[in-house]
UniProtKB/TrEMBL annotation:
Annotated ranges, domain Methyltransferase: 47-145
Record PANTHER family: TRANS-ACONITATE 2-METHYLTRANSFERASE-RELATED (PTHR43861)
Family annotation (Pfam families): Methyltransf_25
Protein name: Class I SAM-dependent methyltransferase
MF (Gene Ontology): methyltransferase activity
The organism of origin for this protein: Hoeflea poritis
Alphabetical keyword list: Methyltransferase, Transferase
SUPFAM superfamilies from the UniProt entry: S-adenosyl-L-methionine-dependent methyltransferases
Methyltransferase recorded as keyword: yes
InterPro entries: Methyltransf_25 (IPR041698), SAM-dependent_MTases_sf (IPR029063)
Superkingdom to which the source organism belongs: Bacteria
Lineage: Bacteria, Pseudomonadati, Pseudomonadota, Alphaproteobacteria, Hyphomicrobiales
Any GO BP: methylation
Length: 214
């Protein structure tokens, strides 16, 4: 489970990074935009982003699905400040809250128990309790709902030197790609009677997973 110490750590990381985050990350956080385009949100559906960061993804999702209702949470107060400003500039008002993605209470935060779509973009690799986060997200999906994840992969079809250099660099930002992500997703989908799709992108640079509830 994430702790107040982890929240403080994330605030420390992003206190200055939030000002340049979107400008610098767009070149290597690959697969985010296609994931959002493939959410296939039903008319008037509810969409939750776990680890919403600067709000960049929520703004983009709102452009694709303007009649949806959007919700976002993050453990970093610094990032939520950026998300609020980004949403205001874009002219829409998502429901934002500070909370732990592994333990959040959706009823208390947002006044609802489930969401048609939940997505997590490059956040699981920074959440210590990443397995609990996935389980918690699945517990907030109704029949027909889906969980969408994109994050760093294991660079399985890229040169070893590239993997080593990338992992060393992102570790400075407390990023730890989850080697067992696909295995865990498949297991949880089987246990819940759901269908999972797990695909490497860009020769394994990124991984994309979807869990569709029956």
């Amino acid at each position: 489970m994430s702790s107040p110490t982890h929240a403080a750590l994330m605030d420390g990381v992003y206190r200055r990074q939030k000002h340049i985050y979107d400008a610098t990350r767009k070149y290597f956080l690959l697969g985010r935009d296609p994931m959002i385009q493939q959410l296939d949100v039903p008319p008037g559906g509810a969409v939750l982003e776990l680890g919403c960061g600067t709000g960049r993804n929520l703004v983009l999702a709102n452009r694709h699905y303007p009649d949806a209702r959007f919700y976002g949470l993050d453990i970093s107060a610094e990032m939520l400040q950026s998300a609020e400003k980004a949403a205001a500039r874009a002219g829409f008002r998502p429901h934002l809250a500070r909370a732990d993605a592994a333990t959040f209470n959706a009823g208390e935060l947002f006044g609802r128990a489930s969401f048609d779509r939940i997505f997590i973009s490059y956040a699981l690799s920074m959440i210590p309790a990443w397995e609990e986060t996935i389980e918690h997200a699945l517990g907030h999906l109704p029949p027909g709902g889906s969980l969408h994840i994109v994050d760093f992969g294991q660079q399985e079809r890229l040169p070893a030197w590239f993997r080593s250099s990338l992992f060393d660099w992102i570790a400075r930002f407390h990023v730890n790609p989850r080697e067992k992500l696909f295995e865990f997703i498949d297991e949880k989908a089987r246990n819940s009677g759901a269908v999972s799709r797990c695909n490497p992108l860009f020769r394994g640079y990124a991984w994309h997973a979807i869990v569709q509830m029956a």
